[in-house]
Amino acid sequence: MDHNTPLIHNHSNHEEETDKHAPLVKEFGYESKRLWKLAGPAIFTSICQYSLGALTQTFAGLIGELELAAVSIENSVIAGLAFGIMLGMGSALETLCGQAYGAGSLRMLGVYMQRSWVILLTTACLLVPIYIWSPPILELIGQTTEISTASGRFAVWMLPQLFAYALNFPIQKFLQAQGKVLVMAWISGAVLVLHAFFSWLLILRLGWGLTGAAITLNTSWWLIVIGQLLYIFITKSDGAWSGFSWLAFADLFGFVKLSLASAVMLCLEFWYLMVLVVITGRLPNPLIPVDAISICMNINGWDAMIAIGFNAAISVRVSNELGAGNARAAKFSVLVVSVTSMAIGFVVMCVVFATEDYFPYLFTTSEAVAKETTKLAILLAITMLLNSLQPVLSGVAVGAGWQSLVAYVNIGCYYIVGLPAGILLGFKFGFGVMGIWSGMIGGIVLQTIILVGITMATNWNKEAEEAESRVRKWGGSVGDH
Question: Where would you find the membrane-spanning parts of this chain (predicted)?
């Protein structure tokens, strides 16, 4: 009997260990379910909306080379610039709506959305000259006169899209904060189907060319806005929408400050990889490297939509939990999303490695471009792995309201370290496009390390208290806790 005692003792010890782990696994599963409920539809919505521009570009490519250049330059440079600024300005709303929702101040969500509309519509008006004067601006950054003129004409036709952006991003953040992501997914999916049909009809069948492209793309974006607005006005969004209010014009300055910090933070990330294409164009014999890097950026763009979905989901989870004062839940949510996102990033990286000799041919018939793209595949794979964690950490920052801190980190890592390193490696040491991209990856690595450090060092209880005071401070005169 004596002989067996230690065995029994060990056994019960082991049982205790298993018991301790069981709730953790269960909790991980539960949090994972909540995350996917938000992230799944958010990823689908992002992909659908990204596809609107991508589809238009594909159809334009079927008309001719100049048309393709016009649409892709307008899409990536001019609309890309506007998209980055608008998405950034709108993401202040993620912090405020999420925290107000967590704190139970439902009525404030509608007021915040209107405040954001005021700011974003004003911003849209300020961006109009960039659209109108785009030909000289594009020539300034090295585009040919022919491409600049065609892109400029297309840009002016795309002005309605700019104002759709201004209304769309606040609406999305408003719905996301309440977890109403399925509504957005359904609307975006339906519009994408219509967009594909009408693009074919107007651009190719009726031969309206770029005019047809502009009509369908503008209409599709406005359909998304109108669909979402109808949903909000008809359902009242469970009390979060109580009609238009003069409160929308109260305390705009504080709101603008957070919006600007969000815009700077997001734009610095958005433009970082756009700059990569521009710098590559400065290489001797740039045509093949530019084509190759454009293919890689295209794939990276699709992958980024997954990260943007997680970014939205985690910023909703963190802001809701902080608003409700649940510091531990916010912290655990960050852990779950980081593990999930890294796992997906790892799978995507393996897929790129496995298909590096084949995937370039989906985008090009040129042997030289395909070879160059295969060479870049290793950098693309690494970028995708890094991009699985980095936007998630940015989402945590938005959920907690640290936009201005992350903006400084981005400037330092991207533009003081990454870009100069890329230019040195690419031009000075003659590594070409591989060198430029490697240097820029260095910047992303540094930024990820710093964000991981900040997240790990965070005192979440303090963040929950700050969220409470933020909801109080910006609640104007509505105190409906």
Answer: 42-64, 76-96, 117-134, 154-171, 183-203, 209-234, 246-272, 334-354, 374-393, 405-427, 433-454
- Shortest CA distance to 322 belongs to which of 177, 465, 456, 451? 465
Backbone torsions φ then ψ of 91, nearest 5 degrees: -75, -10
Helices marked H in 64-105: 65-73, 79-90, 92-103
Contacts (Cβ under 8 Å, ≥6 apart) of 449: none
Which whole-number Å values give the CA distances from 242 to 97, 229, 396, in the listed order? 15, 13, 29
Contact 464, 326 (CB under 8 A): yes
> E-assigned strands of 357-466?
none
- Helix ranges (H only) for 104-158 are 106-132, 134-140, 145-157
The per-type count for the chain, helices as H runs and strands as E runs, is 18, 0
Write down the domain spans for the chain. Answer: 43-250, 265-468
pLDDT digits over 121-178, tens only?
A: 999 999 999 999 999 988 887 777 888 888 899 999 999 999 999 999 899 888 988 8
Place of tokens 């405020």: 96
Instruction: Locate 188 and state its tokens.
Output: 């975006």
* Cα 277 from Cα 271, distance rounded (Å): 10
Single out the residue of 433, 120, 95, 397 nearest to residue 268, CA to CA. 397
Cα distances from 412 to residues 14, 396, 436, 448, in angstroms, run 49, 19, 17, 12
Tokens, residue 165:
């952006």
